[in-house]
Amino acid sequence: MQVSVEEISSLTKKLKVVLPEDFVSKRLDKAYRDLQGEVSIKGFRKGKVPRKILEKNYGPKVQYDLSEKMIQDTYFDALGKSDLDVVVHPDLKDHKFEDDGSFSYEAEVDVRPSFDISRFKGLEIELPEIVVSAEEVDAELENLRKEMAPLKNVDDRGVELDDLVVVDFQGYNNGEPMNQVVGTDYSVDIGSGNNGKEFEEACLGLHKGDETTRKITFPADFPNPVLAGKEVEFKISVKDVKQRVLADLDDDFAKDVGEEFATLDDLKKHITDKQYKEKEEARYGDITDRVMLQLLEANEFEVPARLIQYEINHYISEIEENLKKRGLTLESAGMNLDTMTENYRETAEKRVRGDFILKKIAEIENIKLEDEDISKGFARISEKYGMPVAEVKKYFQSREDLLPFMNELHTEKILEFMRDQTVIKNVVAEEIETPDEETGAGEEA
Amino acid sequence: MNNLYDVIKKACLTEKGMALQEEMNQVVFKVDPRANKIEIKNAVEKMFNVEVLKVRTANMHGKKKRLGRFMGRRSDWKKAVVTVQEGQSISFIEDL
Q1: What ipTM was reported for this prediction?
Q2: What would the pLDDT profile of A147-193 be if each residue is shown by its tens digit?
Q3: B79 part of a folded domain
Q4: Burial group, residue B79, by CB count within 10 angstroms (0-12, 13-18, 19+)
Q5: Hey, is A393 helix, strand or coil?
Q6: CA B26 to chain centre
Q7: Percent of chain A scored above 90 by pLDDT?
Q8: Angle, nearest 10°, between helix axes A264-298 and A337-365?
Q9: CA closest to B94 among chain A residues
Q10: Residue in B18, B79, B89, B91 to test binding to A, most A beta-carbons within 10 Å
Q11: Which chain A residues are closer than 8 Å to B14 by Cβ?
Q12: A interface test, pick of B12, B15, B16, B96 with most A CB neighbours within 10 Å
């Protein structure tokens, strides 16, 4: 096997592989022998069809299958011989059977960029101190109050804000009733915005037993495709109006929320703790983002274009997937592939570069993914989705599924290491702006 | 029958035919039943640009086939085994 490397750019190389005639002819012979046992051609018994006739009828297919197989079988050997440290799947092109019986193909590959990482230990970042304000606790209490409030039917007044209204409704488009836009005994929480502002407004002031109609025009990008871009006339009849009876904020209320809260102060403390924890978790993410930002700024180097493209494709297909769940395509959601690609390119570049940096750190610090890390990862998923661990493992049985997962766990482990290494300075809140959107580590191809 | 292709209908690509070709340098054709040996010889020589030594023919009866309750018959045809001058050959696989 002859392997030659041609430089296309500093990170992109062209690998040219030539397989010798005797290797190829052996494989060809075998391919035709296998084929002979399978095909039946008129005039010949099965297995007795001469090679010439097979070549005439099946030649291109045999060659195509065989070339694919030979490339698969020899590509990694060729890589080994070429001493390239390759990071992505190759772009294979120009494979052909030469006249002298040999077979050649070219593979364009991207190599791992070589770079020296500058300081990564003891990075300093500034973050606002975690504070849970009294207002936030009060707001949470108010929410609880609303949730816990018993409902009382009111017949003597119209619908007001914060009431719960039970309605029947039917939507009409151009006078035709829409069979997907209909509801009976449907509860509307007025003022919550859950059912659309206009719909809720339409109910205001109505009494029990009242009927009304209201035209609502939905914007073209409305998430529900049944309604998007249409003018729908809703016929609403109010069946019940219910008022929330808000409890007083006292120790009794706390007891109602949960038996473990003896006093209102206990409940307040619980809420404070909970919010503190939530903020702490959010801060964890902030730290990661900032660490990554600093690393990216300190380490500029070129990354393979193909990896960036891969990352972009991955991102776009994810968006497409999400849209599909809502019954939309990229076009109908008004997104343009080209602009999206351009917009995402910078982030993708950062993600790819970030991943290289993290892997380098892992190399220097000898951070490896251990078996116990993987079991921990399994356990976490099983907890999150309420599946037994065995079930989770089954899901990750195949290599293709497991590898990205392992990669993710590894990245997490490195990031954890980085967080431990980072000096965090607390500053008073609101002095520093929040960092850009995610620039965290991406998955490697 | 002034067209060569009227005389020679097609080559018989069969196991037996291939064996004959390899061992005796003979080639088997399906020809028009009305054609005689001389016509076949001329046609083959012209068509494939080879020298024909000998032509043997046989009238083949079409097989009887039953289709449901009806008996039917495939058409009769004429087989010609053509011996080609040594050193020359006809390769249908490319030519026909």
Answers
A1: 0.76
A2: 777 777 777 777 877 788 888 888 888 878 887 778 888 888 887 77
A3: yes
A4: middle
A5: helix
A6: 10
A7: 0
A8: 90
A9: A56
A10: B18
A11: 43-44
A12: B15
How far apart, in whole angstroms, are the C-alpha atoms of residue A8 and residue A2?
A: 19
Chain A residue at shortest CA distance from B14: A43
Determine, yes or no, domain membership for B91: no
Whether residue B89 lies inside any domain: the answer is: no
Listed in sequence order, the DSSP H helices in A262-370 are 264-298, 305-325, 337-365
- Check if the beta carbon of residue A88 is closer than 8 Å to that of residue A307: yes
CA distance A55 to A53: 5
**Which amino acid would we find at residue A175?**
G
Helix, coil or strand: residue A235? strand
Backbone angles phi, psi at B57, to 5 degrees: -125, 160
The tally of domains found in chain B comes to: 1
E-assigned strands of A32-131? Answer: 91-97, 103-110, 124-128
Query: CB contact, 8 Å: A44 with chain B?
Result: yes
Of chain A, the percentage scoring pLDDT greater than 70 comes to 92
Residue A220 half-sphere exposure toward CB, CA atoms < 13 A? 4
CA dist A316 and A337 (Å) reads 8
CA distance to A132, A231, A274, A275, A283, per residue, from A280 (Å): 11, 45, 10, 8, 5
The domain in which residue B53 lies consists of 4-84
Q: Look up the CATH number of the domain holding residue B79.
A: 3.30.70.330
CA–CA gap between residue A49 and residue A35 (Å, rounded): 10
Would you say A211 and A234 are in contact if contact means Cβ atoms under 8 Å apart? no
Output helix, strand, coil percentages for chain B, rounded to the nearest 5: 30, 35, 30
Q: Are B15 and A43 within 8 A, CB to CB?
A: yes
Q: For strands B26-31 and B77-84, give the pairing.
A: antiparallel
- Cα B44 vs. chain centroid, distance in angstroms? 10
Residue B44 lies in a domain: yes
Average pLDDT per consecutive 10 residues, chain B (96 residues; last block may be shorter): 75 84 87 89 87 91 87 90 85 56
CA–CA separation, A27 and A63 (whole Å): 10
